[in-house]
Design brief:
alpha+beta; seven-stranded mixed sheet; six-stranded mixed sheet; 39% helix; globular
Amino acid sequence: MKTLILLLLFISTAAWSKYLTGEGEFLSIESDKPTFVKKQLIYSAKKNILNTHLTSLDLSPQEFWQGFDSKIEEKIKTKVDWFDEKILEMQSAENFDELLNFQIKKRELILTQKAKYLERSRVFSSYSIKNRSQSLTNPSLKFIRMKVKINKTRLKSFYFSLTKQNLERTFDKMFVNLTFEDHSSLYSNDQGESFQSEMMEDIKIALIQKWKRFFEKEYGEIVKNIIFISDEESDDFEKKLSIAPEDGEREKSSVDLIELESKKNSDVGSTEVLVETPPPTDKPTKEGSENIENEIIDGELYLKIQYSFMRAKYDTENQKGSYAFKGGVALFDLRGRSSIFFDDFNFSEGELFSSLPNSFYSSLATKLYNYPIKSLRKNKESIARYPSVNNSLSIKVHKPKNMNDVYALNDFLAISGANHNFLTSNFIILDDSVYFDLYFNGPKSEALNKFRQWESKKISNKLVMMSSVDDRSVEISLEETVSSLEGEIKNENAQ
């Protein structure tokens, strides 16, 4: 019997990046301050290292820096225009001292902004200066040698934002499922009902109507239709998220190679109050979703809002209500079968004194409504800029030596495939080989040609990728470089 082992790997791509070294230079002028010269040297070295690194990843440094310079021009256009006007005035007046002064200040503005913008991108997670020097024949010409570590996740995002800055995706539908899970029996020893399901069902109806208005207002520019779905329909979507397309030969279960670290929300970020309680007959659990397509198309999102309750009840005798819950939100791109973002809510509990149960449940509804608002607003921009995918391939990594090699391959594909929005998903181990799905944007032939071009491509300091490509799948072998093998032999001989 074949053994199927699921991979659940908690690792960040940045952790596997290596130090790179490079040099920079800067021609200073007499008025330059030492701190300014140092920053320009660092910027120059970073730029040169980045050029080499982008080229090794089959990405275009020219496109990157064109987008970079366009951003700088946009940011300082007003100030540059002002300097240009002053320079023309001084030329007309033949005031050459002031003319030179304005030219120097304009130069300093542009160079400072470039260095600052690259630094704020956080592409470089760390760096150190190995040495600094200057030309013997021209002391104004300074040199620097540096060692840096590049954050590959941020580099991919930064490269994508600069080379595809006009991309703004819109989506046809966002399916939303709101789930209340009753876990009160596991956490409470109280006599009687700790989760009053009938009242909570009324709250759920109110929340669906309130959130529908929220999404129509806040997400209206990027999502055409907001459709709330039942738990049963939500199960269908989650099955589709876990099944790879075009795969009838092997049974698969979905897990992510990279598990994103969730961020706790300690601030609900909203003071909007929910007070309405619609009649029970208005349940919209299947509204607009009777004909959910079996085939997922591009332009559809699936949002899961989930609460787990340990307690939610009103005590009539003592005229107070109590609650305890936790939960979270997760948004998926259905076509790419990938997570766009997710956030957990902090555990919340408390008591509210109220003479009427409706007042308590209205206050609880307000709290439940406000909890995900901050996350939903914060992540709205990332939805519009999330890479579009409309195609997929099945990838097999033939008997990798260890899982670090698979991490390195995933790293390489994520950034080197940025032009095609490469996204990896559904990793499994089967018979000592690793299988996963590669989602991308564009014709399948272009993605397959990428792998043909990458034959014998060095994807890390130690690995070379060998590819066998057919019409619908790719088989990859990861082989160690000659220098890496020589190093291992030396180490064995030394022992």
